[in-house]
Amino acid sequence: METSTLLSGQTGNAPVINSGxxxxxxxxxxxxxRRTIEAFPEVGLFSFTLxxxxxxxxxxxxxxxxxxxxxxxxxxxxxxxxxxxxxxxxTKEELLKRWDDITExxxxxxxxxxxxxxxxxxxxxxxxxxxxxxxxxxxxDNEIHHRGQGFVYLRALGIEPPAFWDRS
Amino acid sequence: METSTLLSGQTGNAPVINSGxxxxxxxxxxxxxRRTIEAFPEVGLFSFTLxxxxxxxxxxxxxxxxxxxxxxxxxxxxxxxxxxxxxxxxTKEELLKRWDDITExxxxxxxxxxxxxxxxxxxxxxxxxxxxxxxxxxxxDNEIHHRGQGFVYLRALGIEPPAFWDRS
Lengths: 168, 168
Description:
Chain A is mostly helical. In chain A, 57% of the residues lie in helices and 7% in strands. Chain A is built from 6 helices and 3 strands, in the order αβααααββα. The longest helix of chain A has 25 residues. Chain A is globular. At the A-B interface, β1, α2, α5 and α6 of A face β1, α2, α5 and α6 of B. Chains A, B: One of its GO terms (molecular function) is metal ion binding.
């Protein structure tokens, strides 16, 4: 069954998610990710891994360097190369502080994204070419993906993760 | 900074994602999840766990009983209680077959979702009350979340997961 033929009618064009809803959806996920960071013990956050993967702190740093410069790029079309996020160390408190700064940055730049721009093709970080809405969905999906991995780390550390459904 | 005040203007109402885009987005994720199931060895799929969590097969069964009856409920407003998905056993081949059936079911019911209905409040599976668009985003987010956990299982089994960015 070809999706393209199914969606040629009015149904495929039905508006589902607008800019305000998408921002709220992202920030709701960001609140859950923040609680996931908080749930980690300081040492485990920066040292625990499974299967040869990165620490959760390294994943969170990736989310930070994507979200902040990403939303700025979305609004201004000024894209820098993706900042290195592997080598840094730090503390849980510093990480949460950076997380909160990015939350403000997302709220600051989001309303500056021109309405028509969501459908335009952008080259995020100078290398990822896609419509802007797809780029932003990718940012959010990548966060959900890595947070899910953080949940496994927490369980393996004997810690109950925050409730997935709670986005308050 | 209050999000509500930021988004009172035109920007908050900018259409970002329509019905056809959201279907394609979901099915793209479903293709990646299918490849994740395929990457598991038969035994590991039904027996490997970390941190006292469920097997990846049990998570996939949850995704199946959500997506199929979920898209039917979205289109018809006929919601059954969420089917039990814990106790079942089976084979990888059967699981992939069920996955593919649900893919067809999503394509079948999606165009039957009335345009206005995406903004209506539904009570999914008789118990989860939310606007339909939020319910559908939850289905997708839950899939990304558990697939991310499946990636950790694969890594712990010494298997390279499929590329997260590849949705072909």
